[in-house]
Amino acid sequence: MNKLFIGGRRKVAAVMAIALVASLSQVTTSGATAPSVAKRGGKITVGIFDSFPGFCMADNLANSALMAGRTIYETWVEQRSDGKIVPYVLKSFESSADKKTWLLTVRDGVKFHDGTPVDGAALFTNLAALRGILTLQGRAPSPGTAGGFTANIASVVQAGAMSVQVTLYQAESDYPESLYASGRFFARAPSQILSGAKCSTTPIGTGAFKYVSHKLTELVVAANPNYWRKDAKGGKLPYLDGITFTFLPDAQPRVSGVKSGSLAAAMFTSATEAKQMLSLKNNSKFKTIISPADYYGSIWLNHKIAPFSSKNARLAVSHALDRAKWLKVRQKGLGAVPDSIVGPNNIMYTKKGYAGYNLALAKKFSAAYRTETGKALEFTFPYVSASADSTASAILLQQMWQAAGMKVNLLSVTTAEAIQKAFPMQFQILPLLLMEGTSVGFIIPFVVSDMSGGNPAHPLAKTPLRILYGILNISSFKDEVSEKLIFAGRAETNLVKKKKLYQQGMQRLQEEVHMTNIAFTQYSLTSNKLGGIGKLGLAAGGQRRLMTNFGIDWTGVYLDK
Amino acid sequence: MAKISFWLQRLAQLLIVLLLVTFGVSMLLRLIPVDLATVLLPVGSESERAVLRAEIGLDKGPIAYYLQWLGDFVQGDFGKIYFSGGTEEVSTHLAQAMPRSMLLMIYTQVFALAVAIPLGVISAYRAGRRADRIISNTLFTFSSVPSFAIALILIIIVGTKLAWLPTLGYVTYSEGFAEHFKHMIMPVLALSVGLIATYTRLLRADMIAALREDYVTMAASKGLSDRRILWRHVFRPSSITLFTSAALSMGGLIGGAIVIETIFATYGVGFEIFAAISGRQYVALQSTVAVIALFYVLFNLVVDIASGFVDPRTRDRRVNA
Amino acid sequence: MRKFTIPTWFSISWLGLMFFFTIFGWLLPFKSWTTVFEDDLGVAPFSAGHLFGTDTNGYDLLASVVSGTRMSIFIAITAVGLGGLIGSVLGITAAFLRGKVDTVMVTLFNVGLSVPNLVLALALVSVLATNLDINQAVPTWRRVMVLIIALTIVIIPILGRIARGATLSWSNREFVTAARSMGMRDRNIIIRHIVPNVLPALIAVGFLAIGVVIIAEAALSILGVGIPDGASWGGMIARGRNDLEYAPHVLYVPLVFLALTVISTNHLGDVIRSGLDRRESKV
Question: Disulfide: which of A194, A217, A279, B81 matches B88 by Cβ 3.0-4.6 Å?
Answer without folding.
Answer: B81
